[in-house]
């Protein structure tokens, strides 16, 4: 299988703190890869490297055959159109209605008429299980609905890759399950390459085709859910069992 | 000795920090300039900001302008009465409003109302990752968020100043003629005789500069917010303080250049 | 109620603002609007201080026009007045400059004059001059004089009151009055007693004046004799041999100065020797050369910041330019590049050598160049941001505009192109420059257009620091 994204020997520090330390990771095309790791362990930083929000101190980020660390702002914008991203809190523009939020990338990057845009917006909202909410403001929606709207916005331009930054954090078990199902369905229906960041053990085995464990600035385990379950790596074992005993230091 | 050295050290760091900040604001201004001339301009956003900065500030500006004019008339009257020159109260109010108080008070009020809101709005967009979301959607936040605000600031503050000048003079007229019984004809005649077109226009140029300062500082502070809800609060306070100080300092230099 | 759209609100607001502005401009912008018509008369004053163009002209407190212009003619002020067409001024009106209150504005008051009996009344026409003007009472001068006078009076009265006000004073005045009376009585007596003596004195004086007359006649005779060459003084002045002697002395003096000119004698040699002149010239030119060197030697410090759009980052330059001669300079610079300094690291593993490029962001870049100016063209060479390269500047518009092209870092490893930079810099005001251009267009990851601004100033202190240390010629 072909690799959609390759991260090669990524180093990144903020001041004296080394966050990524020689990280290598390949993301396969048309698969969902889940990245797990400690809170504050650099997972969000890794995600921001993939989409070019942060440039690495050294190393390469190859997306679809192109090293994005060498691109300027304009070229980077072209690459970003291949991406959709679902932020932790949704990051909906709270000065705009739901409809305007979802149509934003369409208005920005396509030459569609208002009527066409309205149709696409309704279609995308329907795909995430929402109807008739176009006129509402994000503040009027519940947390779960906001995430659905954010997902609708992320897939509005038919991206090849969608990034999920902790999509189920802060949701109740029922909603968590619903969002997981949504990720699975969306990935299958649109044939997306998905990268999901999560600490929710249930979720990772449910949505992930591949699972990667980020620890100490490196990917120390990578494999299918079965391989991960069978692994004897002490860090992984401690992480999955949620034990306080083991190599992960609790500060 | 050690305490003295650390004092100098801190002083140097503070100076350096301020210089760095001034440089960053200038760089933001440059990139705003470059985006302002790059189509497409976001007309809808510009209108929205103009409504917010301009239309919605009318009430507070009219209120402060009127009362300032009235107070100036009252104060001036007691001074001029000593020389039996009460009819000069009108021109004093008019000159004071058009040259100084109109632009400065208006921009300080707009700073408090809109400059702080800009910092708070952009700040909360920063901490809730909405600005990152713009980048991810290949849209430049400077073009979408900052350029409209700065255009609105530069365009609306002078118009608010015109309104403030007018109601200030009207307030002075009301107090002078109807409360203090100054001769109406002389009052008005002295205004038209002593105030020149340049007084009004220079005041408006000042107002445009202040509009730029308050929106630029507000956007800068908001755009560079760090650290959650507390950071947003801090950014808002800093924006108002820095913008107000900058406006007063700029006022001195603009006055020195113009009059 | 239908909702008003944002655009409509903003539009309405802008409209209101413009209408208010137009109204205020209209009220303020046309002083004396409607006085375009009317006729001009002039009036001449010694002093019009305080009166201005546009000041009011009043008659009996009614405004009848305004001051159109004030000009100086033969040391006097000629004031031209524009009078309303419906007001007719008598030929014998008087004009005066008055003040509203103590501190108020000056205005010009026109008063009807007294009719001269028998003269026919006529009106002033366009261009005519008001005949009678009153001098302006200069309040300041008046006040200060009044103060001085008042001071004097006060001094006199106070001393008087000091002497006369006391009982002793009264006593002494009484004594003085008695003395005066005694004195005049005595005088009377003396005059009466010496009446005869006075007559004799007058007779004596008469005879003395006759004697003097005779003495003057004798003196005039002596001067006549001197003129004719008689007597000792006469001979001395009229004898020819004295004049001959004087002539000879002058000739000798002439001779000496001629000798000096020809280089004879000590002074002559010193003055006429070429070597002396050369020596003097040389030492003078030596001094002036040293002064020139110091004059020509100039040092400039400059800071330039460039904002790179496509990298959303800034580059900073700090430069010292040492210019020993007008057309030659050395440039030393520090550059902070957000990208940092490039380092190439070669690692060999399993027999395969891989080259990786890293950027060290903490490191500054250095520039050191030598440049020479040919008219408007400057060629530079040396280190550019740590790499060897060449640069070219072209100056235009009296050095206000500079076009610069630089190429450096030719080697740049296998996958990088030569770093090229082109930009223009314009002097906005003294010391402050704006620039715009393109940095590194051939390398996509660092290529970016930029705008920048810089501050340049000449540093006199540095110059003297550098010139006081010896410079080889």
What would CATH call the class of the largest domain in chain A?
A: Alpha Beta
The CATH architecture assignment of the domain at 296-468 in chain C turns out to be Beta Barrel
Q: Helix count of chain A, per DSSP?
A: 9
| Strand-pairing-aware structural class of chain C | alpha+beta
> How many domains in all of chain A?
2
Strand numbers in spatial order across the main sheet of chain A: 6-7-8-3-9-10
Largest sheet of chain C: 10 strands, antiparallel, barrel
- CATH-defined fold name of the domain at 296-468 in chain C: Lipocalin
Verbal overview:
Chain A contains 9 helices and 10 strands. Chain A has 251 residues and is an alpha/beta fold. In chain A, the strands form 2 sheets. In chain A, strands 6-7-8-3-9-10 form a 6-stranded mixed sheet, with helices on both faces. A 4-stranded antiparallel sheet of chain A has the order 2-1-4-5, covered by helices on one side. In chain A, helix 4 packs across helix 5. Chain B has 259 residues and is an all-alpha fold. Chain B is built from 9 helices and no strands. Chain B has helices at 2-36, 43-53, 58-81, 89-127, 130-136, 141-179, 184-194, 197-223, 228-258. The longest helix of chain B is centred in the middle third of the chain and has 39 residues, at 89-127. Chain B is globular. Chain C has 473 residues and is α+β, with helices and mostly antiparallel strands. Among the domains of chain C are: 39-137, Beta Barrel (Elongation Factor Tu (Ef-tu), domain 3); 296-468, Lipocalin (Beta Barrel), CATH 2.40.128. Chain C contains 9 helices and 20 strands. Chain C has a 10-stranded antiparallel barrel. In chain C, a hairpin with a 4-residue loop joins strand 9 (298-308) and strand 10 (313-325). In chain C, helix 6 crosses helix 7 (265-272). At the B-C interface, helix 1, helix 2, helix 6, helix 7 and helix 8 of B face helix 1 of C.
Keywords:
heterotrimer; B: 259 residues; mainly alpha; 9 helices; 86% helix; 0% strand; globular; C: 473 residues; alpha+beta; Elongation Factor Tu (Ef-tu), domain 3; Lipocalin; ten-stranded antiparallel beta barrel; eight-stranded mixed β-sheet; 20 strands; 35% strand; disordered C terminus
Give the SSE layout.
The complex is a heterotrimer of chains A (251), B (259) and C (473).
Chain A: E1 3-14, E2 17-28, E3 32-37, H1 43-50, E4 58-63, E5 66-67, H2 73-80, E6 83-86, H3 98-109, H4 114-127, H5 143-154, E7 161-165, H6 173-190, E8 193-197, H7 201-207, E9 210-215, E10 218-223, H8 225-230, H9 234-241
Parallel strand pairs in A: 3-8, 3-9, 6-7, 7-8
Antiparallel strand pairs in A: 1-2, 1-4, 4-5, 9-10
Chain B: H1 2-36, H2 43-53, H3 58-81, H4 89-127, H5 130-136, H6 141-179, H7 184-194, H8 197-223, H9 228-258
Chain C: H1 6-29, E1 39-45, E2 56-59, E3 62-73, E4 76-83, E5 94-99, E6 106-111, E7 129-130, E8 132-133, H2 139-164, H3 167-193, H4 195-227, H5 231-238, H6 240-262, H7 265-272, H8 274-296, E9 298-308, E10 313-325, E11 328-336, E12 341-349, E13 352-360, E14 365-374, E15 377-384, E16 387-396, E17 401-408, E18 419-429, E19 432-439, E20 448-458, H9 460-468
Helix pairs in contact in C: 6-7
